[in-house]
């Protein structure tokens, strides 16, 4: 990145960091059990609610206990179940129409990050009826109090139940953008591990790796605070202790409960400290090809961490210690490499792999344009990259048989790979 733009990015990020103590960050009020949901609605005086979910949740019947509990208590529930993996503008508009048609007064999001993002989008459309979602992308564009929003995660990864962001896809323009505002933080988060036990192993893995990405990116960035660092490291520790168990034994309620707590901690940490290029690159893939976000994050995470080079070694050593891969006496470089290698090992064990077959080489410049536009200047990344420098990360995860390498591209792509040439782990 050229010097002038680099200075602009760092000044912008510094201003945001200085403002963190006075900005209205908040944590949702947590609900420990589904049984308490009717009491919450009574407290909020919501007699009619919109339940935003997806077809997968409906298929396995996870919505039924909620419907039963609320209807038995005299509440009217309207259900929107067409949310896509990457929620679209059309999803939001359809759900918002249903909200108005049924005179709803509050919103319940049931599912993973997709349902929660869609529900947040509905809240935006309720309070900003005349402004299209595309005009809301970026930071602090909503600026209106949303209807009561209750988030019930059925995955342990996105952390959307406590974040200030909604990520919406626009298929017409093949883009995916984030809307960030404090009013998007749900008022309540219902964290019940029983809601996650039916999650298939592969989704357990990819959403768990999503949470790990949140925790690591929140920790290695330049806008951390004491509490976000503590939350990130606690999340990393919980993920390394419980993700394998949740993956192999989905009915283990303790592992599921710990993963739900990890996702919550990581989500809260990155809400304050932001994420980095892993997220920006993954969002571009979601907008262009519909690639699931956690899956893209898992594959991109070790690649981007290697690309940052020695700048992230001290922070990655802390992460490695939290993960149980090193101790305080371990050499910084060795600990950092162990951390990166462990992520690659997890991707292999979970059958996630190391490449994304949807990527077309000719699309990479446009993908990098969208990723750079999202990340710069907002994300306080350890190392700044421009659009051209981001290309190597996509090239690293392209199916190699689909790439025609030119000498210029090859040189550029392998520019930052010195960190991979290391001795075997002692």
Can you characterise this structure?
By secondary structure, the chain is α/β, with parallel strands linked by helices. Helices cover 51% and strands 10% of the residues. The protein is built from 16 helices and nine strands. The protein has a six-stranded parallel sheet, sandwiched between helices. The radius of gyration is 21 Å and the shape is globular.
Quickly list its features:
six-stranded parallel β-sheet, globular, 16 helices, 9 strands, alpha/beta, 426 residues
Give a brief description:
This protein is an alpha/beta fold and 426 residues long. It is built from 16 helices and 9 strands.
Average pLDDT works out at 90
Number of helical regions:
16
Structural class: alpha/beta
What is the number of E strands?
Answer: 9
Largest sheet, order of strands side by side?
Answer: 1-9-6-4-2-3
Enumerate the spans where pLDDT stays under 50 for 5 or more consecutive residues: 402-426
What portion of residues is helical? 40-55%
Rg over alpha carbons: 21 Å
Q: Cα distance, first to last residue?
A: 36 Å
H/E element order: HEHEHHEHEHEEEEEHHHHHHHHHH
Strand content range: 5-15%
Form type: globular
Largest sheet: 6 strands, parallel
SSE layout and pairing:
Layout: H1 3-19, E1 29-31, H2 37-44, E2 48-52, H3 55-60, H4 64-72, E3 76-80, H5 89-101, E4 106-111, H6 113-127, E5 138-139, E6 148-153, E7 165-170, E8 175-180, E9 188-190, H7 201-220, H8 226-248, H9 253-273, H10 277-289, H11 293-308, H12 313-323, H13 332-349, H14 364-375, H15 387-396, H16 407-413
Helix pairs in contact: 5-6, 7-8, 7-9, 7-11, 8-9, 8-12, 10-11, 10-14, 11-13, 12-13, 14-15
